[in-house]
Structure formats: structure tokens, C-alpha cells
């Protein structure tokens, strides 16, 4: 038997299966998806079996055997192995990178080297103390340990290896093993133990106490817990073991991050008419067992979660499993509680705040079929279930579903692909669906799928219980300035905050600022500098006082006077949460503020702690970035304020308007969710912008109509797809010349296929290569960066074309070390 193995070396030259002979004793164990250790270039490396064959592709004499099988049960299933190949093709990454993305970090093994004393080693062949020590270790030891102990014998070890007196082995060790705990068991029936305890001499009072405690407890106990509870010591327990009353054994543990927490079991709620119709549509699809993708478009508070829960229940009833993806940021205890509350032990939870060990244990529950539901962030889409019936992606518009490092996959696209393999239904849920998803749901579905016969768009336009969406006030900050108010708070927001403080109600303040981006804006008239060639703002570079367009490379000097109104109140923009916090303290003495941003949430569980404090009404205001906009449900929040909607509106990204609309709608949805009615204030310098006016009226349809018009005019998704290729090198001239070479080769290949057609041609197939131009961050870690943006439309395998164009630049010895990075369907081009 031959195993085809992808070895863990992420380079293009080795990105293919290599043949290995399967030793006879492994034949019944090795399967597609097995993790193995194989000899490779003089080392032992970890690899995955992606195929099995009767005959090798190479000369059988050159075949090497698989050196070890790392897990009794393959960590990957054949469908995941196939999915990894698809990932590597689509996202232009190595196969091994794709495979690694699917398993928990704990299973990324590293080779360790061992030495073994050969049986036929002759006396005197090795330094005697070395030979003796090895023998005392049972004949084998880690090479590292041996050299550490006998540094003076390094030469002797080497010659021993040469003469064959000692033999070297390598073995893959996981970074983390299954956790085992020393556990104490009683060896006999209760009466026998009790009698024995009575007979213990008086000086063994502690031993008696331990025995009686074990009896009271009634079952096996972890050694540590027993010692702690009885204030005894290990020797007390050992003494009882010696008397044959107790037994000590290592027992495999599963770390359960939710151990000891009670989840109140909930029953399905009677569905509203709107929920019922959607539920029935989903269930029909799950029952059909054919791939189908649906968009559940439900306003905030429309009861999407209850629909998810009941659909999952149905899916489990068919003996199938379900995956639920939620954005990392909203994987709060509130959310987990709702799933654990309904499905209890059948749920595995995976998020990035778990330790590697905890993650691994949750993963093992899935692999060993102990659970039927996996809920987690992005990577939970790879949960190793065998028969998936339903995949749910909540808040499907969230950009965190796209992984920023390789493989740069989008969980939504992976979900659709995985559903195809399993005949599963995919439900994408959101109050503000991404424009791509919305457009796709409105397109006719390919026939033959379950969705081809039924609508893909499932609307839930009303809140449960008929609660109204909160009224939204838009404040023009230019007017505030005109009237002499230079504060970052408008008079209206100031007044409402004062009112809430008096009433003891709570407020959420959003400062919507991201990273390094700054833009130039006039505080008198709201003018922002735009690129004359693209529909985006110019980004201000403080050091050189230049404004730049990151799509086409256009650059101009930053003005000192507003080109529109000649005012001198023109400046680059950027306020931080910290400044807002200071200002609040100044304006409202004694105000209690919880600030939530990247700086205050670095610690493990900080996020939960802060939200808990706010939920316990230990603060008047929750102030933060994006983090405060999502999924929170606090009954005393009756005011939501957005400090400046413009910060995200003016980001030099074609999704700026969409992100702003989504954020404003989400944060507005936090107010007045319960008995107290809510109010929302949005401060902005662009009150007439359609992202603001449509959010003000909770009007998704109007927003989409306007946004589609813009996207069509400028040639952006959903009217085309994008691929971003970034190149980097230490030398600017070399980089720019390689960049040009690459772009022209890509154009050549497209030309040969007859698809090099500009987007605005109106033809069904188009392929456009923009650039290369300097990247927005034009230098990083001492390397210059250039980028090409590819826009295409129609049935074109653009990834294949790019892989082909890249080949001469990345195959063979790395060509002059220009690094290429490909981002397919990028979320951000900035
Ligand atoms: P969404 O996720 O759509 O914003 P939620 O799922 O959080 O909305 O639901 C909003 C509230 O309505 C929750 O408190 C939920 O328990 C409640 N709810 C949902 N469905 C029902 C129902 N059928 N009957 C009564 N209450 C419901
Ligand atoms: Zn102006
Ligand atoms: Zn431009």
C-alpha cells in the first residue's frame, strides 16, 4: 500500500503529494486524513495522507516507509482533505497551509530525536558511562537529553551513530498532549472501607479522614482535589494505596471551559407567524438533503436566534449535525448560554479566547461524535462532522469571516462549498446583509438545487412583540461649530446624556475609528478630499503632508485652506476613545464610564468582565469602538450615541458606505430592546450621505438601491469580483520592475484566453488588471510594497490564471526574493 502524503513544508516546490510505503502493521490504520511522520530531506516531518494507492508513481526502490502514525483516529475526514485542495486552488495557498488551518493548533507536531542503544553494540564501542546511562533509561533517550547530560561525549555519540552502536529515531511530538490527571479510586465496597477506616491506629487520623471523605463523596476524585479538600498530603494518599484501600490511576481529562456552569434548559418558544414561515422553509431544505443557500434577512430583535435553534433541533432529529458560525466579538456568554441552554451537552464551543488545550478538547468532542452542534468563530466551519445537515452563519456581513492571513478564506464561501459536499442547507442571517449576499439571493438559483425551486431570500421585517425600532436623530456637526459649539458632543447628545444620568438609565457611545487611517476634512463645510479618478477619499500621510489614493496611485499636496469654502478649519481627522473619555469626565463630573477598545480588552476575559459590569449597572456609559455595536442586549440602555459617523464613511475603501450603514444600524439596534423605549443620536459632518439617511430611517432597501448604483458605476462587487496581489521587496527599483513583469504576464495570459476585456465593456466576461501601484502601507518591515488589483466578471477561473502567471516568479529558487501574496475576494483593499 502506498500513501500519498502532503508534507508540512509550505513552499511551492514541495506543494504536492509524495509517495511513501505503508508498513504492513499500519495498513489497517492509515486512511485518507491520517496524520503521519515521514522521512523528508534527512528529517522527519509531519504530513497528511491525501490519497492511497496500490502502486507508487516513482521507482519502488526509492520509496521510503511512513515512519509513524500520529493518531489512532485520523484527525481529518476525506471531505476535509478534498476541501483543503479546493481552498489551496481558490485562495492560491499551499495545500499544507490549507490542511493546517483545519486542525487545532495543538496538533501541529514537531519532530523530536531519540537515540537507542543497539543490541549488537560491543563493549568499549561507546564511552561506558554513556552506555550505562542509556541502559538505565531502558535503552532509549532523547538525543537532546543525552547531549545535555554528557556534553563531553558529543564525539562519542557521533561515532556511535556512525558505527551503529546507537541508532537514531525521530518522532513527531504534539505541542500538547491529552491532559491526564492522577485520580483516586476506592478499591472495595463501602462497608469494607468503613471497617478498615475504623481499624486504623489513632496516629493515622488523617488517613481515616481521607477514607471517610472518599466515602462521603461516593466516586473517584482527582488527587489534587482530594488533598485540597482534606488538607492532607500526597503521602497520606500513597500510604492508603500501599494498604490496598485506594488505587491511583492516570485518567484522561477533557478540559471543559464551561465546566461547573449551570445552563438553564430552555424549551422551544411558540414561533411568531414570521418566524414560522422562515422555519418551515429552512426545514424543507434540511429534509431535502440537497445543497441550498438561504439569506435570512431579519431586523434587529426579529428573533433570528430562535429560528436557528429550532432548525438545528430539526436537523439533529434527522441524525445529522449542525455548525453555527458567529463573529468572534459576539461569541459572548449571552450567546453561548442560548445554545447550551437548548442543547446542553450536545454543543462544542470554539473561540479564540480558549487555550490551545481547551480548543483541542472541544474539537475532540466533535471528532469523537460526543456532540452534534459546533458553535464558533470562522474556523469552526472545519468542524470534523461526518454528516452535516445545516450550517448557520449569523451576522453574515461581518468582515471577521474573512481570514487575513493565509489561507485567506471567507468562511461564507467555504460553508457553501462544504454544504455541497454534504447536501446541507446554509442559512446566512443578518439585519444588514452584505451587498454580495443580497445580490446573490436575488439572482435566480442554478436549477437542480433545492433552492432553485424556492426563494433564497427569507425576510423577517418585524421585531418580536411588535416593539418599534428606536427613532434616530441625525445631528449636523457643521451647524454645531457654526453656533459656536466646539465640543465633540452636540447640544442634543449632551442634553440626552444629562437626562439619562438623572434617570439612572444607561447609554452606549460609539466612536467608530479604525487603526491608522486618517483623512482630511474641513470642519466648517464638511469637505473631504476625494480622488479625481476613484470614488474614495484620499488618505493623509502626515509625514510628507501628501494625500494619496490607494487604488490608482493619485497623489496631491494636502491643502492648508479648504478648497471648497476657503476656511482654515481644515485638518486631518482622528479622535480616540481616550479623548472622548476625558471629555466625558470634564463635562459630566462623577460620570461612570466603561471604555471598551483594543487597549482595554487585551487580557483574557476582559471583554466579558467589562460587559458584566455594564450589565450589572456599575456604569452609566459604555464607550467603545465597533465592539459595543454588536449583539449586546441590555434592558436599561435607552440611549445610543454615535460620536462621528464620518470616521468610517471616509475610509478610502469601496465598502466604506456599506460598513457605515451596517454599523449605524447595528448600534441603533442596541437601544430600547425591552420595556423602556430607546433613542439614537448620530453626529456627522455628512448628514445628507445616503448611508446616514437610510440608517436613520432603518431603510435597508433604500440603502442597497443607492449603493448598487454606485458599485455599478465604479465597477465594484457585486458587479465584479476582486483579487488583490501584493508584492514586496527591499529594493524599490527591482520590486517595481518585477511588478511590471508580473502584471504584463498576467495580461498576456488573459489576452491568450480572449478575456482581457475592460469591465465597462458590457460583455459577460471581463478581466482587468489595475496597477501595479504602491500599496497603501508602502513600506513594511523594511520592505517596499506594490499591489495589483484584478477585477473580473463571468465564469473565469481567475485563481488558476493567477497561479499560472505567478509560476515563473515563485517556482524554482525563489526568484530574487520578491514575495507575492494573493488575496482572493479581499474585504479591504486599503
Ligand atoms: P435577533 O437575533 O433577530 O436580533 P433575538 O433572537 O435576539 O433577535 O430575539 C429578540 C428577543 O425576542 C429575544 O429576547 C428572544 O428571546 C425573543 N423571542 C424570539 N422569538 C420569540 C418568540 N417566538 N416568542 C417570544 N419571544 C421571542
Ligand atoms: Zn470647507
Ligand atoms: Zn484614485
TrEMBL record:
Which taxonomic lineage is given here?
Answer: Bacteria, Bacillati, Bacillota, Bacilli, Bacillales
Q: Which InterPro entries match?
A: DEAD/DEAH_box_helicase_dom (IPR011545), Helicase_ATP-bd (IPR014001), Helicase_C-like (IPR001650), P-loop_NTPase (IPR027417), PriA (IPR005259), PriA_3primeBD (IPR041222), PriA_3primeBD_sf (IPR042115), PriA_C (IPR041236)
Q: Return the EC number.
A: 5.6.2.4
Tell whether DNA-binding is among the UniProt keywords.
yes
The record ties this protein, via PROSITE patterns, to:
HELICASE_ATP_BIND_1, HELICASE_CTER
**Where do the annotations place Zn(2+) 2 binding?**
531, 534, 549, 552
Q: What's this protein's function? A: Initiates the restart of stalled replication forks, which reloads the replicative helicase on sites other than the origin of replication. Recognizes and binds to abandoned replication forks and remodels them to uncover a helicase loading site. Promotes assembly of the primosome at these replication forks.
What NCBIfam families has UniProt attached to this entry?
priA, PRK05580.1-3
UniProtKB keywords:
ATP-binding, DNA replication, DNA-binding, Helicase, Hydrolase, Isomerase, Metal-binding, Nucleotide-binding, Primosome, Zinc
Q: Tell me which family the UniProt entry assigns to this protein.
A: Belongs to the helicase family. PriA subfamily.
Organism, as annotated: Paenibacillus harenae
Protein name as it appears in the record:
Replication restart protein PriA
Co-factor binding details: Binds 2 zinc ions per subunit.
Describe, as the record does, how this protein assembles with itself and its partners: Component of the replication restart primosome.
The cross-references to CDD domains, in alphabetical order and at most eight, read: DEXHc_priA, SF2_C_priA
Amino acid at each position: 500500500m502506498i500513501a500519498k502524503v502532503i508534507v508540512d513544508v509550505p513552499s511551492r516546490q514541495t506543494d504536492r503529494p509524495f509517495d511513501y510505503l505503508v508498513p504492513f502493521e499500519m495498513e489497517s490504520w492509515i486512511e485518507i486524513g491520517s496524520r503521519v511522520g515521514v522521512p523528508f530531506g534527512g528529517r522527519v516531518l509531519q504530513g497528511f495522507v491525501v490519497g492511497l494507492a496500490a502502486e507508487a508513481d516513482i521507482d519502488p526502490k526509492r520509496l521510503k516507509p511512513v515512519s509513524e502514525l500520529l493518531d489512532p483516529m485520523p484527525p481529518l475526514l476525506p471531505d476535509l482533505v478534498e476541501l483543503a485542495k479546493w481552498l489551496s486552488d481558490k485562495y492560491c495557498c499551499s495545500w499544507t497551509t490549507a490542511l493546517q488551518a483545519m486542525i487545532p493548533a495543538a496538533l501541529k507536531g514537531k519532530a523530536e530525536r531519540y537515540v537507542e542503544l543497539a543490541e549488537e553494540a560491543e563493549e568499549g564501542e561507546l564511552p561506558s558511562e554513556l552506555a550505562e546511562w542509556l541502559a538505565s533509561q531502558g535503552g532509549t533517550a532523547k538525543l537532546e537529553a543525552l547531549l545535555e547530560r554528557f556534553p563531553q561525549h558529543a564525539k562519542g555519540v557521533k561515532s556511535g551513530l556512525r558505527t551503529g552502536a546507537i541508532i537514531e529515531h525521530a518522532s513527531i511530538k504534539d505541542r500538547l498532549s491529552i491532559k491526564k490527571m492522577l485520580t483516586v479510586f476506592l478499591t472495595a465496597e463501602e462497608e469494607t472501607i468503613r471497617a478498615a477506616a475504623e481499624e486504623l491506629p489513632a496516629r493515622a487520623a488523617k488517613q481515616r479522614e481521607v477514607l471517610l471523605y472518599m466515602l462521603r463523596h461516593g466516586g473517584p476524585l482527582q488527587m489534587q482535589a482530594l488533598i485540597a479538600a482534606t488538607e492532607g498530603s500526597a503521602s497520606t494518599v500513597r500510604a492508603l494505596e500501599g494498604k490496598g484501600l485506594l488505587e491511583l490511576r492516570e485518567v484522561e481529562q477533557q478540559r471543559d471551559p464551561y465546566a461547573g456552569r449551570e445552563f438553564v434548559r430552555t424549551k422551544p418558544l411558540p414561533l411568531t407567524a414570521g418566524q414560522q414561515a422562515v422555519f418551515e422553509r429552512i426545514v424543507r431544505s434540511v429534509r431535502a438533503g440537497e445543497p441550498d443557500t438561504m439569506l435570512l434577512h431579519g431586523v434587529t430583535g426579529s428573533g433570528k436566534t430562535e429560528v436557528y435553534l429550532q432548525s438545528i433541533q430539526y436537523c439533529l432529529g434527522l441524525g445529522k449535525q449542525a455548525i453555527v458560525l458567529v463573529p468572534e466579538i459576539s461569541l459572548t456568554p449571552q450567546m453561548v448560554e442560548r445554545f447550551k441552554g437548548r442543547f446542553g451537552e450536545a454543543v462544542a464551543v470554539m473561540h479564540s479566547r480558549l487555550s490551545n488545550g481547551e480548543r483541542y478538547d472541544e474539537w475532540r468532542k466533535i471528532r469523537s461524535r460526543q456532540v452534534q452542534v459546533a458553535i464558533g468563530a470562522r474556523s469552526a466551519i472545519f468542524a470534523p462532522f461526518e454528516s452535516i445537515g445545516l450550517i448557520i452563519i449569523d451576522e453574515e456581513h461581518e468582515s471577521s469571516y474573512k481570514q487575513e492571513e493565509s489561507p485567506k478564506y471567507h468562511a461564507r464561501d467555504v460553508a457553501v462549498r462544504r454544504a455541497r459536499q454534504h447536501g446541507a442547507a446554509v442559512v446566512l442571517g443578518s439585519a444588514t446583509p452584505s451587498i454580495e449576499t443580497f445580490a446573490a439571493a436575488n439572482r435566480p438559483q442554478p436549477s437542480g438545487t433545492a433552492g432553485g425551486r424556492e426563494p433564497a431570500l427569507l425576510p423577517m421585517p418585524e421585531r418580536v412583540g411588535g416593539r418599534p425600532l428606536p427613532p434616530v436623530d441625525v445631528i449636523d456637526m457643521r451647524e454645531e461649530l457654526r453656533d459656536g459649539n466646539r465640543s465633540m458632543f452636540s447640544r442634543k447628545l449632551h442634553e440626552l446624556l444629562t437626562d439619562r444620568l438623572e434617570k439612572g438609565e444607561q447609554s452606549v457611545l460609539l466612536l467608530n475609528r479604525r487603526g491608522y487611517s486618517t483623512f482630511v476634512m474641513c470642519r466648517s463645510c464638511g469637505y473631504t478630499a476625494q480622488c479625481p479618478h476613484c470614488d474614495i477619499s484620499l488618505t493623509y500621510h502626515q509625514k510628507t503632508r501628501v494625500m494619496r489614493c490607494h487604488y490608482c496611485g493619485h497623489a496631491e499636496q494636502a491643502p492648508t485652506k479648504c478648497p471648497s469654502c476657503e476656511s482654515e478649519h481644515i485638518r486631518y481627522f482622528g479622535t480616540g476613545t481616550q479623548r472622548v473619555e476625558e471629555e466625558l469626565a470634564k463635562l459630566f463630573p462623577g460620570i461612570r464610564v466603561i471604555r471598551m477598545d483594543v487597549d482595554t480588552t487585551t487580557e483574557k476575559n476582559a471583554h466579558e468582565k467589562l460587559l458584566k459590569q455594564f450589565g450589572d449597572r456599575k456604569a452609566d456609559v459604555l464607550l467603545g469602538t465597533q465592539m459595543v455595536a454588536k449583539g449586546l442586549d441590555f434592558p436599561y440602555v435607552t440611549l445610543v450615541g454615535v460620536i462621528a459617523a464620518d470616521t468610517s464613511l471616509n475610509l478610502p475603501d469601496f465598502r466604506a458606505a456599506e460598513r457605515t450603514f451596517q454599523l449605524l444600524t447595528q448600534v441603533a439596534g442596541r437601544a430600547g430592546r425591552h420595556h423602556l423605549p430607546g433613542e439614537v443620536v448620530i453626529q456627522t459632518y455628512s448628514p445628507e450621505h445616503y448611508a446616514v439617511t437610510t440608517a436613520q430611517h432603518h431603510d435597508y432597501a433604500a440603502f442597497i438601491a443607492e449603493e448598487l448604483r454606485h458599485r455599478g458605476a465604479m465597477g465594484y462587487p457585486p458587479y465584479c469580483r476582486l483579487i488583490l496581489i501584493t508584492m514586496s521587496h527591499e529594493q524599490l527599483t527591482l520590486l517595481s520592475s518585477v511588478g511590471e513583469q508580473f502584471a504584463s504576464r498576467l495580461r498576456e495570459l488573459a489576452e491568450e484566453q480572449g478575456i482581457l476585456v475592460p469591465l465597462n465593456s458590457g460583455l459577460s466576461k471581463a478581466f482587468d488588471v489595475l496597477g501595479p501601484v504602491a500599496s497603501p502601507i508602502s513600506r513594511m518591515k523594511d520592505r517596499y510594497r506594490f499591489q495589483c488589483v484584478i477585477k473580473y466578471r463571468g465564469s473565469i477561473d481567475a485563481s488558476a490564471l493567477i497561479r499560472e502567471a505567478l509560476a515563473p516568479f515563485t517556482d524554482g529558487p525563489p526568484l530574487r526574493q520578491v514575495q507575492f501574496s494573493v488575496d482572493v475576494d479581499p474585504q479591504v483593499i486599503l
